[in-house]
Amino acid sequence: MKKVEAIIRKSKFDEVKKALHEIEVNFFSYWDVTGVGNEKQGHIYRGIAYSTSDIQRRFLVIVVSDEFLDRTVQTLLDSAYTGNVGDGKIVISEVLDVYRIRTRENGHAGIN
Questions:
Q1: CB-CB contact of 33 with 8 (8 Å)
Q2: Residue 8 belongs to what H/E stretch?
Q3: Smallest Cα–Cα separation from 73: which of 88, 84, 58, 54?
Q4: What was the pLDDT predicted at 51?
Q5: DSSP secondary structure string, 52-98?
Q6: How many other C-beta atoms are found inside a 10 Å radius of the C-beta of residue 3?
Q7: Could you say which of 24, 47, 109, 112 has the lowest number of CB atoms within 10 Å?
Q8: In order along the chain (112 residues), what is the average pLDDT of each group of 10 residues?
Q9: pLDDT value for 108
């Protein structure tokens, strides 16, 4: 099993959520987060400079079986993409086990 963590633009969240449901990834958690990115310049609006160093994003955590990993990552790459700086990041890590508290099932049964 793998844990997929993705940081995406808030404006792309609905599209990402819909795309994940279409490939049958129906359970994940998410949070609104603020981060610091690589973009160093600010934006100027009506002569006033605004800092863009603090960026509003959405952080998703998805636990999938190994068979779902490639399609989950590809779906995130396709649905979160804008082609602009700040599209986000995806991090993948190993998961030793998962337990469903209600039924005490673990492993693959614990995440479905």
A1: no
A2: strand 2-9
A3: 88
A4: 60
A5: -SEEEEEEEEEEE-HHHHHHHHHHHHHHH--SSTT-EEEEEEE----
A6: 14
A7: 47
A8: 96 97 95 79 63 79 96 98 90 96 93 82
A9: 87
**pLDDT of amino acid 38:** 67
Contact criterion met (CB below 8 Å) for 31 and 58:
yes
| CB 76, CB 16: distance < 8 Å | yes
Give, in order, the Cα–Cα distances in Å from 15 to each of 11, 56, 70, 87: 8, 17, 18, 13
According to the model, what pLDDT value does residue 84 have? 84
* Contact partners, residue 97, CB within 8 Å, separation at least 6: 1, 106, 107, 110
What three-state secondary structure class fits 49?
strand
